[in-house]
Design a protein that fits this description.
Strand order of the largest sheet of chain B: 6-7-8-3-9-10
Radius of gyration of chain A: 23 Å
Number of domains of chain B: 2
Structural class of chain A: mainly alpha
CATH topology of the largest domain in chain B: Rossmann fold
Oligomer: heterodimer
CATH class of the largest domain in chain A: Mainly Alpha
Order of helices and strands of chain B: EEEHEEEHHHEHEHEEHHEEEEEEEEHEE
Shape of chain A: globular
Number of strands of chain B: 20
Largest interface: A-B, 17 and 26 residues
CATH topology of the largest domain in chain A: MetI-like fold
């Protein structure tokens, strides 16, 4: 009996070692989150949730990220389709450029954006004439979120389009569909799941953004900045309930949307 | 009618060059060539899906060289069907019809008619992934025919199918051709398929057309080594299949009657590989075998193997190893029996 078990362990030693190492990572992710959630008293959480400052910060975070994702869809999906269908000199450079927002420190991103969208600069000035300001305003939150999260949508949509057989588009053309109709009747429906998954990722990444928004628009205050501010001014105990609520809200949406995409896959 | 003048297409590694074809209305035209000879690209160029370097394409008297694919009215069927996976069979067939802006009930009745024609009516609500290869190919054909194309382009429509579905789809193709008087260009690497279906055949090799002619001309009078090698691999007979009194079926070629195994009936072709023929100096009595007495009319020495032509008076090309050739002591003009199993004969 013991001998069998020992033999089994020896035979599976690679699997067992890797599982144990993997377990460390899983615990590393889940323990801090779970501990924070379960060590907060429900009463304090409830009170915090009814604070106007907290709800408006969370609401602002959610819809700013949603608007930035909408812009991402409008501008990023065409780029993704173009990249999936064309080969050209410098394509690798373009693909690398799309990934740059992932590697640049986000506080630096905020400063870089001010140098374009600030009111003293051409683009910022032009938008100001149209009544849109970025610094310390909601549009600033949106572009900061968009800058750091667009790679997730573009890359996912590109992978989705690459999986659509060009010959399906060819057949659609022979059947009388124009390039536009082919895109909307064949390419887009077939790639939509990748686009949807990419959108969820982009939205989630937008919600979690802190650094770039901090520089560009400290006010109006999004939830991650509110957490930071309470931590700075009042300490850990005051920051925690807000953090917990933010994490719970994110998890609910994230799990909900993931399962929606997953259900679509099985249908 | 479709006319291709001086077509040149850059394929990267090589070019399709100086392609001149004139295909009559209602003709079943075959482009025969090995894999990688540029057949698919030729079809895509005709459909406007692949950029051409020079040349002209004319369709029913009008030039379409620069016309967008959606305005050409050309039906296209790819080898692995390319059905829209997100649409049902009905949705696939409706795809092109929806572009025509005709009233809805008219579209539905067109779908029903085409589905009936190809025998896919019972599959209309199914998704492509649930269909067999033959069902998919019939759906792809129905979809291409839905727009009443002026020409139907078929890219290796049978080669991804198992033998049984292949027979079935081949039958459908013949039916479509007869009933709709459709003009068809069909590319294939399969010589038997070409002979079975084609009114005329063009043989394509490395971007050039080597020969254009009826199946009979390509088979009997190949104009080059390449065409001959394509054709000479087998013994091919044209004849008629009928029910046998016992056993499966009888294939009659002139006076000769071959015992064959097939479900097909009517005017057809039969092929027999040279290596499947057994030679014997004595008659062999066996019910499962075809046995004919003939005279050796030609001996081609290929080193370790020998090709013999035996006239019964139909010509059989037979393959022997040098050893058995020498052991049997065969000579030109000598008498010999050609013997082969009914199952060795492929009817198509």
């Amino acid at each position: 009996m013991v001998q069998n078990m020992l033999r089994w362990i020896v035979a599976k030693r690679l699997t067992i070692t890797f599982l144990l190492l993997g377990l460390v990572i899983l615990l590393f992710i889940s323990v801090p989150l779970l501990k924070m959630v379960f060590s907060s008293s429900p009463g304090i959480l409830w009170d915090t949730m009814r604070e106007g400052e907290v709800t408006s910060a969370i609401w602002l975070t959610l819809y700013s990220a949603l608007i930035s994702t909408a812009f991402g869809l409008l501008l990023g999906v065409p780029l993704a389709y173009f990249l999936a269908r064309h080969r050209f000199r410098g394509k690798r450079f373009v693909e690398a450029l799309i990934d740059v927002p992932i590697v640049v420190p986000h506080s630096a991103v905020g400063i870089a954006l001010i140098f374009v969208f600030g009111q003293d600069f051409l683009v910022g000035k032009t938008f100001h004439l149209m009544g849109i300001d970025f610094v310390s305003a909601v549009p600033g939150i949106i572009i900061a979120m968009m800058f750091v999260s667009i790679p997730f949508l573009v890359n996912s949509a590109k992978n989705g389009f690459e999986k659509v057989d060009v010959r399906l588009e060819n057949v659609a053309r022979t059947l009388g569909a124009s390039p536009w109709q082919t895109f909307f009747r064949v390419s887009l429906p077939l790639a939509w799941r990748s686009i949807f998954t990419g959108s969820v990722m982009m939205w989630a990444r937008g919600i979690s953004e802190f650094g770039a928004v901090l520089i560009l628009a400290y006010h109006p205050m999004i939830a991650p900045i509110l957490v930071y501010e309470r931590f700075e001014e009042y300490g850990l105990d005051y920051a925690r309930p807000v953090a917990v609520i933010l994490i719970l809200v994110c998890l609910v949406f994230f799990i909900g949307l993931r399962s929606l995409a997953y259900r679509g896959e099985r249908a | 009618m479709i006319e291709i003048k001086n077509l040149t297409v850059d394929l990267g590694a090589f070019c399709l060059q100086d392609i001149d074809l004139k295909i009559e209305p209602g003709e079943y035209f075959i482009v025969l060539g090995p894999t990688g000879s540029g057949k698919t690209i030729l079809l895509e160029s005709i459909a406007g899906l692949y950029p051409i370097k020079s040349g002209e394409i004319w369709l029913n008297g009008g030039e379409v060289t620069k016309l967008e694919p959606e305005k050409r009215g050309i039906g296209f069927v790819y080898q692995d069907y390319a059905l829209f996976p997100h649409l049902s069979v009905r949705g696939n067939i409706l795809f092109g019809l929806k572009q025509t802006k005709r009233p809805k009930d008219e579209l539905q009745s067109t779908v029903d008619w085409i589905a009936g024609l190809l025998g896919v009516s019972h599959l209309l609500e199914r998704k492509p992934e649930t269909l067999s290869g033959g069902e998919r190919q019939k759906t792809a054909l129905a979809r291409a025919l839905s727009i009443s194309p002026q020409v139907l382009l078929l890219d290796e429509p049978l080669s991804a199918l198992d033998p049984q579905s292949r027979e079935e789809v081949q039958h459908e193709l013949r039916e479509i051709h007869h009933r709709l008087k459709a003009t068809i260009i069909h590319v294939t690497h399969d010589f038997e398929e070409a002979i079975a279906l084609g009114d005329r055949i063009a043989v394509l090799s490395e971007g050039h057309i080597l020969q254009i002619g009826t199946p009979e001309q390509i088979f009997r009078q190949p104009n080059s080594e390449f065409v001959a090698r394509f054709a000479m691999a087998r013994n091919i007979f044209s004849g008629e299949v009928r029910d046998a009194e016992e056993g499966d079926a009888i294939f009659s070629v002139g006076d000769m009657e071959l015992e064959v195994v097939t479900e097909l009936r009517g005017k057809l072709h039969a092929s027999l590989r040279p290596e499947d023929i057994l030679l014997s100096k004595e008659p062999v009595i066996s019910s499962a075998r075809n046995s004919f007495r003939g005279t050796i009319t030609h001996i081609a020495d290929r080193g370790s193997t020998i090709y013999l032509t035996v006239s019964t008076p139909s010509n059989f090309i037979c393959l022997l190893t040098r050893r058995s050739f020498e052991e049997m002591n065969l000579t030109k003009g000598g008498e010999v029996y050609v013997i082969f199993k009914a199952s060795a004969v492929h009817v198509f």
